[in-house]
Structure formats: structure tokens, C-alpha cells
Amino acid sequence: MSTPRLFHDAALAEGAEIPGTPAQAHHLGTVLRRGAGDEVAVFNARDGEFAATIAHLRKDRCAFALGARRRAPATEPDLRLLVAAIKRDAMDWIVEKATELGVSVIQPVMTRRSIVDRVNLDRLAAIARGAAEQCERLSVPEIRATLPLHAALDGWDGAPLLVAAERRGALPIRHVAAGLRLPCGWLVGPEGGFETAELDDALRRPFVTAVALGPRILRAETAAVAGLAVLQALAGDWDVS
């Protein structure tokens, strides 16, 4: 039986006892059928990962007794995803898979062809935490407040930002990504793609480069994951064992 991993943003140190959240208590007691004395692991990016046991567990309350640290904090890749707001199930899937692929930031953006008018940030943050717990990373991606695309670009820090633009005759992504080093970002549009004027505005910015993901037209969620995988393979941490 695998040991559950639990993200906790409190200061972690050997010998400490820290309270869990009601959601963690429910998951451990109701879903996993664990109880006091059972082993867990508690982690965050600042302090690392610690062996722990469940000190006590009630219906909506729990606490963890921390043992020895078993993983020290480590630098993680600064790979960012800007993604147009799309339907809930697809957006949930993107956040889960982007977390597994190691992104540091997920920035939802509103575009002219976005078909939703709001994004449930709390829901996406919970999905990101769950995915981080499953994939053994130490950090949880920052889920930023939704912005109009132009505002997200106006506030960008100048790191290279590649945009999926399959109808622009752009270079294949591997030719561009091979010359990059992190930090960098990946921008994916909505179903139906960006409007021409919208993409033109993005490409006028010196840090934005259009790239192609091959001869087929991909769904937004497929393009998000495919591009992140290429960037991790060619510019990120996939060469680290």
C-alpha cells in the first residue's frame, strides 16, 4: 500500500506536529480508510518532504507528527503555461497534466473566442495540489487570476514565450525550443484558435515566437500538453535523472 503524500504550506521541521485541513481529513479517513498511527508524507517546496504519521484523525480534523526529512528542497524548472479559458473538463485536465509536466505557473487568459466567462480558480488549485501529491514533485504550480490575453502579455517579464500558431507557416517547435533555456512559457489559444488581430498583437512583442506542432490540427488541451512536453524535453529538466 503506497504512502499518501500531502502538500502543506506550513513550516515543516522534524518533531513538529501540524494540523491538516478538513479536506485532508476527509480524504485520509473516508477515501483511503487510514487512521491514527498510519504513515504519510508531508511536503512543500520551501522545506522539502518529511516522513510523518497521522497523530489524530476525526471526520473533519487531523494532525500530522513529522519525522525525518527525506527530500531536501531543490530547484524546479520555471516553465509557465498561459492557456485560454476553455470548458471545465478540458481545463481541469490541462491543469492536472501541466502539473505532472512540471510547470511553475498556470495563467488562464480570456481571448476573443473564449466560450466561458469565468474560471474556478479554487477548483483548479485543488486539482494542481492533488496532481503534485501524486507525481512526487515538491512544489504546486501557482494558479494565477484570470486575465485578458493582452493584460497577461503586458505584464510578462520578457522570458521567451512560444505560441501555438498552426496556420502561420511557423517553424516547428523543436527548432525553436532546442535553443532555449528556462525560464520560458507556452501560450495556447481556445477552441478555434486566436483571432488574426489577437495573434498579430501577441507577435508584435519581441519575446513572443510563433511555432508549429506538426501537420495536424490539435485540440487546445492536446496542444497544451504536447508543447509543454517538447519544452521540458529540449529546454527543461527531462535530462535530469
UniProtKB/TrEMBL annotation:
GO terms for biological process: rRNA base methylation. Keywords: Cytoplasm, Methyltransferase, rRNA processing, S-adenosyl-L-methionine, Transferase. The keyword S-adenosyl-L-methionine applies. Its EC number is 2.1.1.193. Residues 77-232 form the Ribosomal RNA small subunit methyltransferase E methyltransferase domain. The keyword Cytoplasm applies. Residues 23-62 form the Ribosomal RNA small subunit methyltransferase E PUA-like domain. It is found in: Cytoplasm. It comes from the Bacteria. One of its GO terms (cellular component) is cytoplasm. It catalyses: uridine(1498) in 16S rRNA + S-adenosyl-L-methionine = N(3)-methyluridine(1498) in 16S rRNA + S-adenosyl-L-homocysteine + H(+). InterPro entries: Alpha/beta_knot_MTases, PUA-like_sf, RsmE, RsmE_MTase_dom, RsmE_PUA-like, tRNA_m1G_MTases_N. Its main location: cytoplasm. One of its GO terms (molecular function) is rRNA (uridine-N3-)-methyltransferase activity. Belongs to the RNA methyltransferase RsmE family. Specifically methylates the N3 position of the uracil ring of uridine 1498 (m3U1498) in 16S rRNA. Acts on the fully assembled 30S ribosomal subunit. This is Ribosomal RNA small subunit methyltransferase E. It comes from Neoroseomonas oryzicola.
